[in-house]
Amino acid sequence: MAKKQANDSIDVQHLAQLAQLSLSPKEQADLKKQLTETIKYINVLQELELNSIPPTSQVTGQKNIARLDQARPYLTQKEALVNAAQQKK
User: What is the full DSSP assignment across 29-55?
Assistant: First the structure.
């Protein structure tokens, strides 16, 4: 894949318009610099050899820790409303 200069491919005004942002010229310049650095870093990451590393979705090893739903005794309507200030019948 041919690499372009990251700075040449960023149209900050177009991105700002899509995001409905009003950016000053200084903010546009700052954003362009930040995006350029981000793209450079992504290009470095793309050069890493990762074929021998299995994909991961999480790294803690935790399993689903949610309890199963179990039917338990519950209050009747009358019991639930015993302390209510008003009851509609």
Answer: HHHHHHHHHHHHHHHHHHTS--TTSPP
What confidence tier does 7 reach under pLDDT thresholds 50, 70, 90? low
Contact status, residue 27 vs residue 15, Cβ threshold 8 Å:
no
CA 35 to chain centroid: 18
- C-alpha to C-alpha distance for 56 and 59, rounded to whole angstroms: 7
Residue 44: φ, ψ to 5°: -65, -45
Whether 35 shows a pLDDT value over 50: the answer reads yes
DSSP annotation of 6 reads G
Determine contact, residues 25/14, Cβ cutoff 8 Å: no
Is residue 12 within 8 A of residue 23, CB to CB? The reply is: yes
